[in-house]
Design goal:
The protein is of the alpha/beta class. It has 27 helices and 15 strands.
Length: 635
């Protein structure tokens, strides 16, 4: 919509100018149309009963001197009606060079009522079509504003508390009105567009706050929640002045931003309260106060803690990713777990997963947590505990933290439980592969021989020869011959459990974990005893044996003796001075603690390695094997 000040430039043929300098102050009045009158019409018919708001009233004929006395009274009435109907201005036709076409009394009355007076020297013909052109412009403006309002409504988020909603609205406002836009409170900038808006508008906000003003020709400062304790404001600025339509659009946007801000504050307050309650419940569980924790969570998550057992997961996020990880955990798992920050480590997030109805749904939770940690990227890790009674979650926490530290040393930084870790993946690479290739070198020198050995030995070492032959679909004598030849070449005795374990472990490293061809190493040959006491293996071993070591029976002494006597029960019982039944009872208990089948070579391997790694001086199982292997390598 045009304004009075722009009409002379937009329509120079109208030869329009202000009648006095005082009225030029009203150049910003918007013009909604043109109403034409003649002096004769005013004298004969009087002042029109109504005038359109914002109209420019044009008297097309020159006011003759003989009519001035009579017309002055009518003009006073016209000014009164124009003031009542909020007309934009009064213009009169006058010949070029006319000093002042309006009587002085009319000029004074117009000034008193704030109605601008203009003079035009253009003929009535030149004014034809001006009103229609203004109306067409108004229609275009209305359509454009309707489109803008529709677009603003489209920016409404599905949830007012959407953390990105405010920024999207500010981006839209900056784009549509070509402004610098900023939403801020007393503490921080909430949204800005473009990025330089905060720097550009900071001075204007400070200046207008000091001057107690909220607007200027090029800047606007709008409170989003006037009358409330919130002090959030929308500040906008641009090079050109704002018109009324722009200001209306700004007010609509400010109302929408105010709703978003209010919803965000309320959601944040509710979330903070819920988070505090969950943290309190978590602390109560760690202190064994299960009943109190259930009462705290009764309204927040009914039934969540009405269980007998649970497990704990621990995430240590990369620096700077803690909040993102916590938020993602709440979004994905908040309904089925209890999540809290670790008060002793701001990077660590603790998750209690209750086990309902005796069914462990930990795999579902675990898979979701793995995806979260994968998205966090490098320097993030995840560990989990076994299933514990809900009254013993402090123990589960200690296990989960240990496993998380252990996971941080692994390539994928993810370990559910130490019991689930594969031993060969814990050995330092590629040193362990060099050790394996050095040990198996006598078998690998002949490619044909090596192919037969790598196919036969893993099964033959793990099972009796008859079972191994059936599994391999070979004759028993063939299996026996290959095993005997391998023992002779390696200078080992496969009737000794330590030798069988060492060779089986070397074969697994070469067959399944070998990363590619190896060149000749110039360093000292790696020692198995050193590999088995590396930090990851030591942590794994200590955690694997922890529960068994706490048993009142001396299970580990029984295990050591049983392995020393190559897994034979009778000499073990004789050495310990107990019955064979007691030895078998101790071994069954040990199986439950370490979750391994001790009737398999893999189970025996893990028990032997864990005993050696946890206390090498007390359980030096692999010392003799190391000496034999060294002689083989030298030979």
């Amino acid at each position: 919509m045009p304004i009075l000040g722009s009409l002379p430039a937009l329509k120079p043929e109208l030869e329009l100018k202000f009648a006095s300098s005082g009225t030029a102050l009203s150049a910003s009045h918007e013009v909604s149309g043109v109403v034409t009158l003649t002096p004769e019409q005013l004298l004969e018919n009087g002042v029109p009963a109504a005038l359109p708001e914002g109209s420019l009233v044009l008297i097309t004929d020159t006011i003759s001197f003989r009519l001035r006395g009579r017309i002055t009274t009518v003009l006073d009435l016209l000014l009164e009606q124009m003031s009542r109907n909020a007309s934009a201005a009064l213009a009169v036709h006058a010949a070029p060079g006319t000093p002042q076409p309006f009587p002085q009394t009319v000029v004074d009355e117009a000034a008193r009522r704030g109605i601008p007076l203009l003079v035009t020297s253009a003929s009535a013909e030149k004014w034809e079509g001006v009103h229609e052109e203004i109306q067409r412009g108004r229609l275009r403006d209305a359509e454009r504003r309707a489109t803008q309002l529709s677009a603003l409504v489209q920016e409404l988020p599905a949830q007012l508390a959407d953390p990105r909603a405010m920024q999207r609205i500010v981006d839209w406002l900056a784009r549509v009105l070509d402004v610098q836009a900023l939403v801020s409170d007393s503490d921080r900038c909430l949204a800005a567009a473009p990025d330089t808006a905060a720097e550009r508008l900071a001075g204007a906000i400070i200046r207008q706050s000091v001057d107690k003003t909220s607007s200027g020709p090029h800047t606007q400062l709008i409170e989003l929640a006037p009358g409330s304790s919130a002090d959030t404001v929308l500040a906008v600025a641009r090079r050109t002045p704002f018109d009324k339509a722009d200001l209306r659009l700004l007010r609509y946007a400010a109302k929408l931003l105010g709703l978003v801000d209010q919803a965000t504050r309320e959601y944040r307050a509710a979330s903070d309260a819920a988070r505090a309650a969950r943290c309190a419940a978590f602390d109560l569980l760690m202190e064994g106060e299960v009943g109190k924790a259930r009462r705290v969570m009764a309204n927040l998550a009914p039934g969540l803690l009405d269980v007998d057992s649970a497990r704990i997961f621990v995430i240590e996020a990369a620096a700077g990713c803690e909040d993102a990880a916590f938020q993602r955990c709440n979004e994905d798992l908040g309904s089925r777990t209890l999540i809290s920050y670790d008060q002793g480590n701001s990077r660590r997030i603790l998750i209690v997963h209750p086990i309902h109805d005796g069914h462990d749904t930990g795999k579902i939770v675990w898979d979701q947590l793995k995806r979260i940690v994968t998205r966090l990227g490098k320097n993030s890790s995840l560990g989990g505990s076994g299933i514990y009674s809900i009254t013993l979650l402090d123990r589960a926490m200690r296990e989960a933290v240990t496993v998380q530290k252990f996971a941080a040393l692994q390539p994928n930084s993810v370990v559910l439980s130490v019991h689930d870790a594969e031993l060969v993946t814990l050995l330092p690479q590629p040193v362990s592969q060099q050790w394996a290739r050095d040990l198996l070198a006598p078998l690998m020198c002949d490619p044909a021989q090596w192919e037969s050995m790598r196919e036969t030995l893993p099964t033959a070492l793990a099972f009796p020869y008859t079972v191994a032959a059936r599994r391999l679909q070979l004759h028993r004598n063939t299996v026996n011959r290959r095993v005997s030849r391998a023992a002779r070449l390696l200078r080992l005795d496969f009737s000794i459990i330590t030798d069988r374990v060492a060779v089986a472990m070397a074969l697994e490293l070469v067959n399944h974990c070998d990363s590619g061809p190896h060149g000749v190493s110039t360093c000292e040959p790696p020692q198995l005893t050193a590999l088995l006491t590396s930090p990851p293996v030591r942590v794994w071993a200590e955690q694997l044996l922890k529960s068994a070591a706490e048993d009142r029976r001396d299970l580990l002494t029984t295990a050591r003796a049983w392995l020393t006597f190559d897994t034979h029960v009778e000499p073990t019982a004789r050495h310990l001075g107990v019955s064979e039944v007691t030895v078998r009872s101790h071994l069954r208990a040990l199986e439950k603690y370490i979750q391994r089948d001790l009737s398999t070579l893999a189970g025996v391997r893990d028990l032997m390695v864990s005993l050696h790694a946890a206390n090498e001086s007390k359980y030096p199982f692999f010392t003799s094997c190391e000496q034999t292997a060294s002689l083989c390598i030298v030979a």
